[in-house]
């Protein structure tokens, strides 16, 4: 397997990219996704694989300078087998060939020679300028002579996608790419964030996943910025946040029943499966409802906690759930107190809340940390499949 150089993505792919695969990193205009390609190249070199980098849009020196700025360190080409086909090579071919067909033959010959002489394991191709010169099929057609290499190299392409979903489907269907990752921006549910979507992985059938990410320390880091925990009064929200968190804070007072009730907000922090999560627990009383949309505006997921032994909470929980869905924030249901008698069934909860079958309803005890962390993992998984 060839690592992408990004732990969260490798985990989703079952360890990385099988050798000999065809991979596309497709970027929407305006999205900072250059580090995806650079991270994979950096990891391939670190593992001692021989690499050919085709970059007709720039020179080798400019490329290495940009890569160093992105990674925060040198690419590590010293002592490694890495060869380049850059803008200088493209200019020479354009200068001395008369037409596109002759130029294509010259490209094919040079790429084949570089592969065979250097026993290339992985080819990294920046497709945009080649696409302009030869079209999509023509540009990819520069590589058929790779059959002459000792083995089939892995092909990894970066492309700026102006054509949307239809182009991605063409790469998967007509062009037979094994892995397609789309890197794009979104304006919901937060004002703006970048995310990557594993659109297709031929060796790892899985739901289409969209994962927010940030760039930190020269790495692409999957990131779940903030999760809101809400629900009716005394449903177990504060206990949920407390048992989920490595550390946290709650502002409580005694309710009429004698139980504590949150009068401001619960805070918690937890790191789970490479996701840094901040938890915000809201008060459950209706008078605090105006603060909930403010929190949801910058949240990327919600846990709706209900006391499964109190059917009279359902109407309040349904109101809160509708508030969440109107703002298009993914949410799961934590049916608390599953260790007590008189609890509602899952079907009763679904009917009472009016939710679809694909919305997770998890039966838990908020007193058990493993139950609470299971809810967060389910929400993180649900977020990656949510259509923003």
Protein described:
- The protein has 388 residues and is α/β, with parallel strands linked by helices.
- It contains 13 helices and 16 strands.
- The strands form two sheets. Strands 3-2-4-5-1-6-7-8-9 form a nine-stranded mixed β-sheet, with helices on both faces. The protein has a seven-stranded mixed β-sheet with strand order 11-12-13-10-14-15-16, sandwiched between helices.
- Helix 9 packs across helix 13 (369-384).
- The radius of gyration is 26 Å and the shape is elongated.
- 39% of the residues are buried.
- Mean pLDDT is 85; it is low at 248-264.
Topology:
Blueprint: H1 7-12, E1 22-27, H2 34-46, E2 51-55, H3 60-71, E3 82-86, H4 87-96, H5 100-118, E4 122-126, H6 128-134, H7 136-140, E5 154-160, H8 165-172, E6 179-186, E7 193-201, E8 209-216, E9 219-222, E10 226-230, H9 237-244, E11 247-254, E12 260-272, E13 275-281, H10 291-296, E14 301-307, H11 314-326, E15 331-336, H12 346-353, E16 361-363, H13 369-384
Parallel strand pairs: 1-5, 1-6, 2-3, 2-4, 4-5, 10-13, 10-14, 14-15, 15-16
Antiparallel strand pairs: 6-7, 7-8, 8-9, 11-12, 12-13
Helix pairs in contact: 9-13
Précis, in short:
This protein is α/β, with parallel strands linked by helices and 388 residues long.
Poorly predicted sequence stretches spanning 5 or more consecutive residues:
248-264
**Total number of helices:** 13
The residue-averaged pLDDT reads 85
**Can you tell me the CATH superfamily of the largest domain?**
P-loop containing nucleotide triphosphate hydrolases
Q: How much beta, percentage-wise? A: 25-35%
Number of domains: 2
General form: elongated
How many strands? 16
**What is the helix content?**
25-40%
Compressed to H and E, one letter per element, the order equals HEHEHEHHEHHEHEEEEEHEEEHEHEHEH
The end-to-end distance, rounded to whole angstroms, is 32 Å
CATH top-level class of the largest domain = Alpha Beta
**Structure class:** alpha/beta
Radius of gyration: 26 Å
Largest sheet: 9 strands, mixed
CATH architecture descriptor text of the largest domain: 3-Layer(aba) Sandwich
């Amino acid at each position: 397997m060839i690592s992408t150089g990004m732990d969260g993505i490798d985990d989703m792919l079952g360890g990385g990219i099988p050798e000999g695969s065809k991979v596309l990193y497709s970027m929407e205009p305006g999205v900072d996704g250059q580090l995806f390609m650079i991270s994979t190249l950096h990891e391939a070199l670190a593992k001692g694989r021989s690499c050919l980098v085709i970059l007709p849009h720039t020179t080798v020196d400019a490329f290495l300078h940009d890569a160093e700025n992105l990674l925060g360190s040198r690419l590590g080409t010293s002592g490694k087998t890495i060869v380049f086909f850059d803008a200088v090579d493209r200019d020479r071919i354009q200068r001395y060939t008369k037409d596109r067909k002759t130029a294509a033959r010259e490209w094919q010959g040079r790429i084949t020679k570089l592969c065979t002489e250097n026993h290339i394991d992985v080819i990294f191709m920046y497709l945009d300028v080649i696409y302009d010169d030869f079209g999509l099929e023509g540009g990819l057609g520069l590589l058929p002579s790779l059959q002459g290499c000792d083995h089939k190299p892995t092909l990894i392409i970066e492309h700026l996608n102006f054509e949307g979903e239809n182009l991605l489907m063409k790469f998967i269907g007509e062009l037979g790419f094994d892995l397609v990752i789309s890197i794009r921006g979104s304006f919901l549910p937060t004002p703006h964030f970048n995310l990557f979507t594993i659109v297709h992985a031929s060796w790892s059938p899985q739901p289409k996943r969209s994962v927010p990410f940030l760039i930190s320390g020269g790495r692409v880091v999957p990131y779940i910025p903030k999760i809101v925990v809400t629900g009716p009064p005394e449903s177990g929200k504060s206990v949920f946040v407390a048992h989920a968190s490595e550390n946290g804070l709650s502002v409580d007072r005694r309710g009429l029943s004698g139980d504590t009730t949150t009068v401001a907000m619960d805070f918690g922090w937890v790191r789970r499966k490479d996701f840094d999560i901040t938890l915000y627990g809201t008060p459950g009383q209706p008078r605090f409802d105006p603060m909930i949309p403010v929190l949801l505006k910058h949240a990327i997921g919600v846990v709706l906690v209900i006391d499964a032994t109190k059917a009279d909470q359902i109407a309040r929980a349904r109101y809160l759930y509708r508030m969440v869905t109107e703002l298009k924030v993914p949410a799961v249901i934590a049916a608390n107190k599953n260790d007590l008698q008189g609890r509602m069934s899952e079907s009763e909860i679904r009917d009472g809340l009016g939710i679809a079958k694909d919305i997770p309803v998890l039966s838990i005890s908020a007193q058990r940390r493993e139950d609470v962390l299971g809810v967060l993992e389910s929400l993180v998984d649900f977020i990656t499949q949510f259509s923003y």
